[in-house]
From TrEMBL:
<protein>
    <recommendedName>
        <fullName>Lcl C-terminal domain-containing protein</fullName>
    </recommendedName>
</protein>
<keyword id="KW-0732">Signal</keyword>
<feature type="signal peptide">
    <location>
        <begin position="1"/>
        <end position="30"/>
    </location>
</feature>
<dbReference type="InterPro" id="IPR011460">
    <property type="entry name" value="Lcl_C"/>
</dbReference>
<dbReference type="Pfam" id="PF07603">
    <property type="entry name" value="Lcl_C"/>
</dbReference>
<feature type="domain" description="Lcl C-terminal">
    <location>
        <begin position="329"/>
        <end position="453"/>
    </location>
</feature>
<feature type="domain" description="Lcl C-terminal">
    <location>
        <begin position="136"/>
        <end position="278"/>
    </location>
</feature>
Amino acid sequence: MTSRIFKALIVKTVCLITSILLLASCKYEAVDEVASSPSNTTLEETNTINFDLPMCDGECSCDEMQIEFNDTGSLLAGDYPEGNFPNCNGQSGFLQDCDVGADIEQSNDDGHAGFSFKKLDTNGNTSDNNMLPHACVMDNVSGLIWEVKTFPGAGDLQDASHTYSYRDDNYPAFSTTNGGECDRECDSQSYLARLNQAALCGFNDWRLPSKIELQELVNYNTFTPAIDVNYFPHTKSSFYWTNSLDVDDEGSIWAVDFSVGRVAGGVSSTTRHIRAVRGQNRLINRFSAPTEAEQLTTNRRLFATQQRCNSIEVNTAPSHRYKQDSEGNVLDTLTGLIWQKCVVGLSGDNCEQGQPEKLNWQQAFEAANDLNDTNANTNPWRLPSIKELQQNIELACEEPPLNPFAFKNIPFGEVWSSTPSPRNDNASYQYQYQNSIIFYSNRDSEHYVHLVRNCSTF
């Protein structure tokens, strides 16, 4: 692993190269290993930004919510320290992933537990969901249309076994040409050009999905592959490229694993599969850019002493995405979720008091129950699902990958999700608040806890 100081120099170099090639500059400075302490700069000295989020008009409500996302599909209830109940029946005694969200509706016949899909024929027309084969799939939740692969060994353009290096000529430092194994021109840019030329399902605007979009397809109730194979046959139990750049590592791009639903970065020369998508990226251009004051490293260091941000990636979590209630809890107007402003163990206006607590999975649920015992809100605090954690991400930043004015003094390390692993019944998924890696660990491991609750409907 490249040292943090060396990586900071790399980021500055990449910014300079990108500026020359794209006639644009990096919005944020790279931060070296020894970051300035918040105590060195006071709010009065900067006097450049209002660090308080706008208040909700009364109680923060679901009226603010802008986007509906796919749920995890998990129907499992994890036990401690090991074991999964096959159905969500409250046996664990805690509010788990399977108790909340769209996947509690199991009666739908167009996808597993809250997923909703429609098969499309070669002309892009909707058809009977029992039709086989089909060329594309519409996600009725996101509105996105996804390609469907042909069987491994077919030898055609969409052969499911083909792999590709990542390439985007807009980002040469993140690109490798023709580095995969396929019929010809085995990199992502060449593949998309060929797919658009072929006008799959009648469309010529196919692209790579973002890491959030691609993770939406993951079904965390199953594994190898972790997807609904009725709609996405021939899916390989391995990593698929996204178009999200890993802004803190030179040449690294995010990928989603459809074996168990991991999310991790990899250098562009790594061979990955591709599942192309078309339709509006619902995160791009939804919010205006952060203000110049918000982009200043000196301001961000007040609450995120080592955060690294880079303008080569789109901003997904500017401050005007968020509001707060009278207790300082943070409403995400994109998802409608309300987050505790501090992780468990921290308190104060800026989460500067106390120490963040590391708890095992059982203790994490108990922390939510303890808070609910003293809180009369009808929507209880709970552990977030693994998808809810990623939906809150700031793609342009790492360490942490969050907005530091909404979530102040976030500790580095893993935070627990409420999503149990279907493959390892002694493990549950975790999200890394250092650089947004998704994996799972044993339930007796100790991680940070960041609680969430649903918004209220009026």
